[in-house]
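During the reporting period the student researcher (J.K.) took over the structure-prediction task from the postdoctoral fellow and processed the backlog of single-chain submissions. One of the processed entries is reproduced below for the supervisory committee.
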Amino acid sequence: MRATALWIVAGCSAPERARDAAALVDVGAPGDVKAPPPDAVLPDAVLPDAVLPDAAPPLPDAVLPDAVLPDAVLPDAVLPDAVLPDAPPQQPPDAAPPLPDAAAGERCEGGEDDDADGLTDCDDPDCFLAPRCLPAPEVCDDGRDNDLDGRADCCDPTCAGAPACPRGDAPPYTQAELQAHLTVWCGGCHMGEQRQSGLSLDPPFTDKTVGVQSAQVPGVALIEPGDRLRSFFWLKVAGRQREVGGGFGDMPPRERLCADEIERLGGFIDALVDSPHAADSPGSP
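J.K. obtained the following C-alpha cells:
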C-alpha cells in the first residue's frame, strides 16, 4: 500500500509532490485513519443516472355491459270511495220537525222526547236515576207529595214521628179494626194459601205474630208486646226494618200506609201485654 502511494507521488512535480505528500494518509494499521486537511477539495460525487422501468402500457378501456334492471311492478293503489254525509233535506217552513234520533238517548231535560219512545224527560224510565229526576225527601207540612210516592205530608210513612205529625193524635187500632185492615193491606200475600216468607195473617193474626220470631231477622219478634221499636212487623210497615238488620222492601209493597195508620198500628203494639188476648188490651175486640 505504501509503495503504491509513493509511485503515484513520483509522477508529479516537486512542489506538487511536497503538497501531495503532506496530504497522504498513512494507511498503516487498520483503524488508523487521519482526517484530511481543512482545505482539501474532494471531487464531486457523480451518481449514475437512475434508469426507471418503462411504464406499463395503458390498459384498454374497460367496457362494462349495460345493467338491465327488471321493470318494477307496483300494485295499483285502490282508494276507498269518499262517502260524504247526506245533506239534510230542506224542509218547507210549515213542515213538521223531523223525528228525534232514538240512538241519541233521552237527555232527561228540555221537554223533548229525545229517544222517540213516547216518553219525555223524567217520565222516561231511562231517566229514573238521573239526578234531576230523583224524588226529593218528603216535607211533612207543605201539603205536597214531595217524594212522589202518592202520599203527602203526615200520610207519608217517612213522616211518622215527625214534629208536624205528632204521636197520639189518633187512637190505637182495636184488634178487630186491625184485622180488617190487614185483610185489605196484606191479604193477597199473607192469607189463605198465600203465605209469603212463611207469614200468615189469617184471623186471629195475633196468634201468628205476637211473640213469634221473625224469619228475616232471627232474634227479633214480629210483634213484641208493649214495644213497637222491637217489633219487626211495625218496623217493616214503617220502612225502618234496616234499623234491626232487615232488608229492603217495605210493607205493603204496592201501597204504603199513611203516617196516622202506622201510628195507630204502633199504638196497638205499645198497648199490648204479654197475652195478646188480655181483656185490658186495646187490641182486644
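The committee noted the following: The chain is about 20% helix and 0% strand.
J.K. will present the remaining backlog at the next meeting.
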